[in-house]
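To whoever picks this up:

The parser on our side crashed when reading a file containing two proteins. I've narrowed it down to the boundary between the first structure block and the second sequence. Both blocks are reproduced below exactly, byte for byte. First block:
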Amino acid sequence: MNLSGKAIVVTGASEGIGREIALALAKRGANLALVARNRDRLDQVLSELHNLGSGDSKLYVCDLQKLADIQSTAKQIIQDYQTSLIGLVNNAGIWQKKAPLEEIPDQEIQNVIETDLLGVIHFTKALLPHFKTLAQSAIINISSRSGITAQSGQSVYAAAKWGVKGFTEVLKEDLKDSPVHVAGVYQGGTNTDMFHKAGETWSPEKMATFIPAAQLAEVVAYMLALPPQIWLSEIHVENR
């Protein structure tokens, strides 16, 4: 798609993979609807986008664990961008520290499922009627290697990410005769602060083996910028 002057929603855009996706898309001429909980960090990313010439980018403070927040934010984004709004990158997610199920706090279980799975479903549902009215639009769900493989100590995180995989596959079927293109991204460990926030204490040497977030972002931007006759419906990314 030609991204110049078009608007794309990126959730979890205040840092990490989401921030890098926003920057990569802005370099291709897109305007970004930045969605996250932290206004200060969103302000910083928005300033970076404006410096890149993405002057119509905007920020939206939204807690993906709150359905009312999602619905009101999606409504405002549609009002702000109207027919220029052509895409959604469901990127927001939180990590569940590796542990046996019985040792994972109940609130952590709730937070992971609500953010990593329900947030994806509800945000997509809120924007989907708009996307169906366009000549062409796109939804990319950022899942994880944990959404296609079983890895010890990740029962809750995997449950959410396998859910995203199933949700993505059914959306493809439901929308195959519509103008909405759907894709899933299944990446290996990516070098962001997500793990440290959950209390993982991995060494710098281990983190250095992970995918650089900026490079993963280039993959997502490439998917969205392909010619309109081409679509990558699933992509697996690993660090070499």
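<<boundary where parser fails>>
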Amino acid sequence: MESEAVQIPLWQQAWAWFETNKKQVLWGAGAVVVVGLIVSVVLYRRDEAEVASSEALSNVAIPGAAGANRGDIANSFIKVATMYPNSRAGARALLLAGGSLFTEGKYPEAMLQFERFTKEYTSSPFRGEALLGIAACLNAQGKTPEAAAAYKDLIDRRLSEYVLPQARFALGCCYEAQNKPELARNLFEEVERNNPSSSLGSEAGMRLEELKLKYPNLAIPIAPPPTTNAAPLQPQKR
């Protein structure tokens, strides 16, 4: 009898197990199907939201770029960001709103949008751009020490390599305004050296030359340290 039980085909053993546990298996399969449907609906709605938000952003950005019927472009961007939170288009809308307000000279209002971006999109790859916008708003309002601290923090954190040249150049200008020519020179030299073929690199080179004319001591080359390759003195024989 034992040998016959052992020789039962595997499919018959599986079927017997299914008949015994039929209720649990069906419930488990049903749960998997329900979860799959929920995930599919969520992803579908998310894709729909991304498409709708992108279309809404385009409807604002295209007329604004053409310069026709501009109206209050910044408020339109803000509406898109509010209607479609946590979306890629909503994130771009906040940055565009801040940039539009900055261009209009509305620096406190622009700063609010950049700060909103940093709070709502903490893991966005464009967080560095928003922090650069905050520092620029502080600088434009004449808050040079606060702007310098914001630029330096952005450089130290290295959140975005793309904004580092702009941040270094702007920090150099802040140091120059604060009568710190040595620190400004170092930053202008770094921007010129690392961005030789860009307009920003050229601007840094011009600012560096102006700085050296204003402070002639900055143009004096630093003396190299003394060499230690001289032959050691031989002890005198008595």
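After patching the parser it read the second block fine. Residues 116 and 124 are 13 Å apart (CA to CA). Residues 29-63+71-104 form one domain.
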